[in-house]
Design a protein that fits this description.
Elements: E1 2-11, E2 14-24, E3 29-33, H1 40-47, E4 55-60, E5 63-64, H2 70-80, E6 81-84, H3 96-106, H4 112-125, H5 141-153, E7 159-163, H6 171-186, E8 191-195, H7 199-202, E9 207-212, E10 215-218
Parallel strand pairs: 3-8, 3-9, 6-7, 7-8
Antiparallel strand pairs: 1-2, 1-4, 4-5, 9-10
The structure holds adenosine-5'-triphosphate.
Adenosine-5'-triphosphate is lined by residues 11-12, 16, 34, 36-42.
């Protein structure tokens, strides 16, 4: 589903990482750990085509990202990807249900009843049942985190990229969110790359890798 080969990234001429290799098959869950600032979010952004790589190759769902135009990249993201951003990126002027339903609308779905059903299902799954009409500014950080997760999974993406999805959650809610991600991977056959500082979250993955400036390596306990 995802192949990263010899990835190189610089920011403003300064090296972030080089020599990053990663292959993730459908139905496989990989956690990426690493020191703060080593480039974990940057790696996810490169995989999503949100930041250009400076070298190496990324192949997502059989398509090589290099050389794809903005339009093709946007379509690939819409159709294949669910991204849980560290900073949520929940749209402030849309209510919770509209935020969660957005990926379905961007895919061209117009069956309002079907969209409402699926959004309701996601609200229940992340423990936000009844909060669909609330605006984001009335939610807590942990609730916003769960909106972001529901929105990333609503269209059953083939590849899930999750940047610290449990960072703002209490241990019980974090475990529920990890259940959702693991279910999406194992029951639905999605691939998942999870960036986290949480050893508990990483323990749910099939493989754990640690990002260093010169590549991704197996964790000591792996
Ligand atoms: N837009 C940018 N312009 C310049 N430098 C950047 C930019 N984004 C990130 N960086 C730098 O790239 C490096 C990697 O940042 P990144 O956010 O990917 O790290 P991270 O491993 O995800 O960190 P954390 O665990 O703290 O979230 C850092 O040194 C950061 O300062």
């Amino acid at each position: 589903m995802l192949e990263v080969r010899g990835l190189v990234k610089r920011h403003g001429g300064l090296p972030v990482f080089h020599g990053v290799d990663l292959a993730v098959a459908s139905g496989e869950f990989v956690a990426v750990l690493g020191e703060s600032g080593v480039g974990k979010s940057t790696l996810l952004n490169c995989i999503a085509g949100l930041e250009p790589a400076d070298g190496g190759e990324i192949v997502l769902a059989g398509q090589r990202l290099r050389g794809l135009g903005d339009e093709a990249l946007a379509r690939l993201r819409r159709e294949q990807l669910g991204f849980v951003f560290q900073a949520f990126h929940v749209l402030p002027h849309l209510d919770v249900a509209q935020n969660i339903g957005l990926p379905l609308r961007l895919l061209g779905r117009r069956d309002e009843a079907g969209i409402a059903d699926r959004v309701g299902q996601m609200l229940d799954q992340v423990g936000l049942g009844g909060l669909g009409t609330r605006l984001p500014q009335t939610l807590s950080g942990g609730q916003l985190q769960r909106v972001a997760i529901a929105r990333a999974l609503v269209h059953r993406p083939r590849l899930i990229l999750a940047d610290e999805p449990t960072g703002n959650l209490d241990p019980a809610t974090a475990a529920t969110v990890m259940d959702l991600l693991v279910d999406q991977v194992h029951a639905q056959g999605a691939a998942c790359v999870l960036v986290t500082h949480s050893r508990a979250a990483a323990a749910r993955a099939d493989r754990v890798r640690v990002l260093h400036t010169d590549g991704l390596r197996a964790a000591a306990a792996d």
